[in-house]
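Q: Please design a sequence for this.
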């Protein structure tokens, strides 16, 4: 097992931000230890201690900052935290490049991230149970998220697809004017593969829109790495894409990314849909469409991140935020994985 490479706080934070944290009452120094945490595909996270408490420092990447509204992210994070569904957000830098939040310590033997998988809209029957009561934890959590006050930023599924499609078209046009590179060609081929699905995507979106009575609070990325388990309760993190959106999207994200048995999936689906005020009675038939759209959006995201990485870098860079934690090829590999799950 490789040793975690720690850093000094000054190597990951500007001195001005450290000074602001000290003024806020935290006992940090430039030499405080910052231990990298297992991060996702977008940003970098560090564990730091002020002498009394552990905190999570997040350094936002330039690419993810271009795909989300940081002010909306902070508002929506606080909405969830105020209802006990997320860690408390303690500090946000003026440029929204750095966040400091409460550290939720998971038990070593109970890491929710261990449930991470990738499933299509129609998975095979699975009788294995990795976490026996996962469904009874997920159901009240999903209900709690669905009942949160609706965010100010509204992004329905059709609008989201149109936004992604238009951004990708601009990138494709710009790439075509640049000198030849194998990565750029691979990106263009992946983009064409996505566009070939557009007729199906429009059908899935139409069916989703038909079963929705009203949009609701949506986290938009409830994969197991964005959920923390502590003392019998789930908490969510990473609110970059949280918005007011379709009431099926969050359960679709859970079903797409959690290693649940068939029985657990059925329990969760039936419990979530039963009497849901924002869905029509036949909404269950549109759940496969929601799962397909989840993977479509993941594929779009991976192409956008690939285009902003240093080895392609056609999107505008924001030098006030951190570098992407992965390179273009890794994001293009993610695209291949995601698009293979669309059926």
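A: Design:
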């Amino acid at each position: 097992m490789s040793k975690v490479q720690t850093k000094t706080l000054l190597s990951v934070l500007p001195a001005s931000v450290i000074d602001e944290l000290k003024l806020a009452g935290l006992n940090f120094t430039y030499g405080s230890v910052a231990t990298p945490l297992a991060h996702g595909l977008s940003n970098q996270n560090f564990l730091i201690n002020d002498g009394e408490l552990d905190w999570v420092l997040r350094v936002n990447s330039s690419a993810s900052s271009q795909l989300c509204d940081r002010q909306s992210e902070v508002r929506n994070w606080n909405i969830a935290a105020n209802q006990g569904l997320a860690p408390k957000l303690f500090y946000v830098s003026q440029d929204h490049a750095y966040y400091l939040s409460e550290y939720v310590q998971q038990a070593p033997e109970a890491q929710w991230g261990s449930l991470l998988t990738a499933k299509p809209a129609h998975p095979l029957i699975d009788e294995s149970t990795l976490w026996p009561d996962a469904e009874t934890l997920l159901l009240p959590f999903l209900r709690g998220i669905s009942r949160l006050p609706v965010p100010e930023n509204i992004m329905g599924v059709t609008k989201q697809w149109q936004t992604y499609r238009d951004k990708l078209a601009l990138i494709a046009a710009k790439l075509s004017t640049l000198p030849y590179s194998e990565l750029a060609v691979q990106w263009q081929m992946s983009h064409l593969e996505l566009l070939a699905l557009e007729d199906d995507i429009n059908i899935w979106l139409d069916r989703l829109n038909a079963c929705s009575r009203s949009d609701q609070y949506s986290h938009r990325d409830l994969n197991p790495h964005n959920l923390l388990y502590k003392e019998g309760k789930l908490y969510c993190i990473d609110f970059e894409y949280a918005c007011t959106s379709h009431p099926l999207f969050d359960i679709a994200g859970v079903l797409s990314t959690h290693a649940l048995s068939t029985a657990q999936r059925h329990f969760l689906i039936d419990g979530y849909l039963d009497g849901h005020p924002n869905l029509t009675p036949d909404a269950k038939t549109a759940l496969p469409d929601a799962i397909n759209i989840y993977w479509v959006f993941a594929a779009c995201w991976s192409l956008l991140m690939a285009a902003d990485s240093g080895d392609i870098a056609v999107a505008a860079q924001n030098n006030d935020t951190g570098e992407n934690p992965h390179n273009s090829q890794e994001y293009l590999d993610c695209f291949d994985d995601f698009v293979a799950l669309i059926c």
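Q: Thanks. Anything notable?
A: The longest strand covers residues 44-49. The CA atoms of residues 171 and 177 lie 10 Å apart.
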